[in-house]
Each structure stands twice: as C-alpha cells, then as structure tokens.
Write a structure and sequence with these properties.
Shape: globular
Distance between the termini: 38 Å
Structural class: mainly alpha
Number of strands: 0
Strand content: under 5%
Helix content: over 70%
Largest sheet: none
Number of helices: 3
C-alpha cells in the first residue's frame, strides 16, 4: 500500500510542479512521471541539506513538489 501512496503523491506533485514551472512542463503524463521521480529527488535533497520534511501528507507533498520542480528544471535544460 505504501508504494501506491508514493505513486499517487508523486503524480500530484508532478502536476503541481508542472503548474509552477510555466512553460517548463512536458505534458500531463510526463509531468506525472517526473513528479514520481521528483519525490525521490526531493527526499534526497532535503536529506543532504539536513531539512526535515515533517511527517504526514503535507510534508511529503512539499518534499515531492520541490523535488519535482528540480527535476522539471533540469529536464527543461536538456529539452532545449
């Protein structure tokens, strides 16, 4: 069940990140995939910086959105 939770949370984060990165998106499906990857990236980055994301849905969502924005930004660099 945890796996499904992370997939859904990553999908929502990817969608939100796509809205934040105006013009930097890749379409709904690709933003969702990048959001799922971004969830892992966000957790890794927050861990490196020593920032606690907090427990619960909101902390996980914020971490995933930050990671997804980072992934979309980097992917946008390669898109051009």
């Amino acid at each position: 069940m945890n796996f499904l939770y992370f997939i859904i949370l990553g999908a929502i984060a990817g969608w939100i990140a796509g809205k934040i990165m105006k013009g930097g998106g890749f379409g709904l499906v690709m933003n969702i995939i990048l959001g799922i990857i971004g969830g892992a990236v966000g957790g890794w980055v927050f861990g490196l910086l020593g920032i606690g994301s907090g427990d619960g849905l909101i902390g996980s969502l914020i971490t995933s959105v930050v990671g997804a924005v980072i992934v979309l930004f980097v992917a946008g660099l390669f898109k051009k």
